[in-house]
Amino acid sequence: MMLVLFAILLWLSGWWINTRLAEGPQANSRAVRLAVPLIFGLTVLAVWELLVRGLNVPLVILPAPSLIAVRFAQSTGLLWQDFMQTFVKGALSGYVLGCGAAFLTAILVDRSDFLRRGLLPVGNFVAALPIVGTAPILVMWFGFDWESKAAVVVVMVFFPMLVNTVAGLSETTQMQRDLMETYAASYWQGFFKLRLPAAMPFIFNGLKISTTLALIGAIVAEFFGSPTMGMGFRISTSVGQLALDMVWAEIVVAALAGTLFYGAVALLERVATFWHPSQRG
Amino acid sequence: MNKTICGTALALVMAAMPAWAADEVKLQLKWVTQAQFGGYYVALDQGFYEEEGLDVTILPGGPDIAPPQVIAGGGADVVVEWMPAALAAREKGLPLVNIAQPFKSSGMMLTCWADVGIEAPEDFPGHTLGVWFSGNEFPFLSWMNTLGIPTEGGEDGVTVLKQGFNVDPLLQRQADCISTMTYNEFGQVLDSGVTEDELITFKYEDQGVATLEDGLYVLESNLEDKAFRDRMVRFVRASMKGWKWAEENPADAAGIVLDNDATGAQTEAHQVRMMGEIAKLTAGSNGALDPADYERTVQTLLAGGSDPVITKAPEGAWTHVISDAALN
């Protein structure tokens, strides 16, 4: 009971500090803007630890963060192997293939109205397929290793990327396109000089959405058949072994990988579209 | 008028009596509603539980439901679980205790194509085997360890696939062997048009590495409660009555299971066959755990190799208190 009371006190004090910081004179300084989420996160972890210990919650329901950290530190080799299998081989290769294919399809769609009418509904249809329905079939087609996971990721990221790119390519106004026309620009000259740069924010939007989808797709696909490694494999089998600390360690890996992946794409966007109004910070 | 009201009231009270007086028991199954759990559905349907003054709710499981987790969270009073998973949970700090063992033998086996050059377990190296995980991999890993075959792939070892709960990997030859239960997946392989001559099967029972399946487990802390013990005694007694009824009337029992299948996924032919196979496994058990079977299970698991299921022989993982009181 003492621990629970302590947890409540800690929560309130963390809350108080953060409110003071956010309303204080230094609210817009870099240090405070970093400190506020950091204090919040640490408070959540500490309160979690105290409540789990104070209320004697069994490990199979919710392990304490300290146990998860210990498990994480002890199994870095295993976690790294799972990360390589699922993220690098499955998610990343599927992401590159899927986004690349969607980008090229978008150009085709853009060039011909016939394809626009034909392909977009198909893309729409594919997007509506539930992953739990397609994953077992793709595992059947492409085998148990990472290839089938990459295939699931391709299916998942293809549509958001396609729609965003197509929308981006029609971002320019008629007046701008007419100007290119008067310069006697060919389709490709107009494409690279005017329409592709204008589409960049949209394309990056698609890329950012796809990062999270790729990770989810690769992990969930492993539930439907996998070799004896991978993040999805480990999560689903560790639950059966009641090694919930391992499950949470994998969740930490997935969260870190997902955040870094998204961050990397967002950084790339800042570099590539520094001229765009939305990037003026 | 008054008489009528009194009569109606009395009738209502009478009707409500059994339900009001019955003790609630929640049973969490290891898998979906099927003849594998026929005995419990029979006991429910034939009123054996009611006779014991119990109001039993049977909760079907599924691929994403781990019974130990359900009982830890207070979602069930008693669970059907395989002993390896239960002992692993016990070592993980969730003290499950076996109170009854309706299944005498294990229905687990590896089913292989006869044409891939596997004639005996010694021929496994170099082949790909499909194995179920989620706690069902323990018997397999222990078996490979007793044979001294590594499970990391390569020429001298076996490549292990995490098999979904279907038989596709075998039919598509993505695996040379897959895990099957005598009463379920093996039938699915045959249903797909494969004949028994094309297959070779290795039963865990025959290999001497069988582990106890489908026992009834409760939390140790609950067993200290006299009222709970009394409920469990009645529950086990009625359940075993149900099992023996199912053994004698497999076709009717399969019908009862079908009536209770809310998903509508099961077919009659499949359930009748399953009930027949299950009857072979429950035959020879009166519900009391045979300590010799328990010892064999523990020895098999302790031979789990580099990553053993349990690291030391468990203590107090089973009790005869309930089954003795229930069966005498």
UniProtKB/TrEMBL annotation, chain A:
GO terms for biological process: transmembrane transport. It comes from the Bacteria. Keywords: Cell membrane, Membrane, Transmembrane, Transmembrane helix, Transport. The keyword Repressor does not apply. The lineage of its organism: Bacteria, Pseudomonadati, Pseudomonadota, Alphaproteobacteria, Rhodobacterales. Gene3D superfamilies: MetI-like (1.10.3720.10). InterPro entries: MetI-like, MetI-like_sf. GO terms for cellular component: plasma membrane. It is a multi-pass membrane protein. Residues 84-269 form the ABC transmembrane type-1 domain. It comes from Pukyongiella litopenaei. Belongs to the binding-protein-dependent transport system permease family. It is found in: Cell membrane. This is ABC transporter permease. The chain crosses the membrane at residues 32-52, 59-80, 92-110, 122-144, 150-170, 202-226, 246-268.
TrEMBL record, chain B:
Residues 35-253 form the SsuA/THI5-like domain. Residues 1-21 form the signal peptide. Belongs to the NMT1/THI5 family. It holds the Pfam family NMT1. SUPFAM superfamilies: Periplasmic binding protein-like II (SSF53850). Responsible for the formation of the pyrimidine heterocycle in the thiamine biosynthesis pathway. Catalyzes the formation of hydroxymethylpyrimidine phosphate (HMP-P) from histidine and pyridoxal phosphate (PLP). The protein uses PLP and the active site histidine to form HMP-P, generating an inactive enzyme. The enzyme can only undergo a single turnover, which suggests it is a suicide enzyme. The lineage of its organism: Bacteria, Pseudomonadati, Pseudomonadota, Alphaproteobacteria, Rhodobacterales. Keywords: Iron, Metal-binding, Pyridoxal phosphate, Signal, Thiamine biosynthesis, Transferase. InterPro entries: NMT1/THI5, SsuA/THI5. This is Thiamine pyrimidine synthase. GO terms for biological process: thiamine biosynthetic process. GO terms for molecular function: metal ion binding; transferase activity. Pathway: Cofactor biosynthesis; thiamine diphosphate biosynthesis.
